[in-house]
Amino acid sequence: MICVNELNDLKCNKRAILEPLTVVVSTYAPHLCEELWSLLGHDKSITYKEYPVFNESFLVEDSVNYPISINGKMRLKIELPASMGKDEVEKTVLANAEVQERLDGASPKKVIVVPGRIVNIVV
Fold it and tell me: How many distinct helices (H) and strands (E) make up the chain?
């Protein structure tokens, strides 16, 4: 359902994406997928179609949405590249205009960065 909702938000209508999805869902909803398969223009049953091959490269995230917590309360989220190191994340977050506004001119006592998860700023 998450995949279907995401594809719906993206207004996806690409056959290369929808056909393998239909094959995967057919194990759970065979009658519905058989109907969708015929609407996609196929004359053979979906049960004769090979199951899609798992490709691990599709699971790699390009960016991370970091929640920024100031004095223990989550204040905002910043999307940063997943390849950024701990020090780069800290510098980027502290240079952000909204973070500077929330710090109100105070310098942070401690900045805790958990790579890929969260940034905590203690003032």
Answer: 5, 4
pLDDT at 59 over 90: no
The rounded distance, in Å, linking the Cα atoms of 96 and 80 is: 12
Residues 6+ apart with CB under 8 A from 106: 123
Token pair for residue 92? 């980027």
Tokens linked to 89: 């994340």
Give the predicted TM-score (pTM) of the model. 0.61
Backbone angles phi, psi at 83, to 5 degrees: -80, -5
Q: What is the mean pLDDT of residues 33-56?
A: 92
Phi-psi region of 116 (alpha: psi -120 to 50; beta: other; left: phi over 0): left
Strand partners, 63: 81
Closest C-alpha among 76, 68, 72, 53 to residue 117 = 68
Which domains occur in the chain, in start order? 2-58 (no CATH), 63-122 (3.10.20.590)
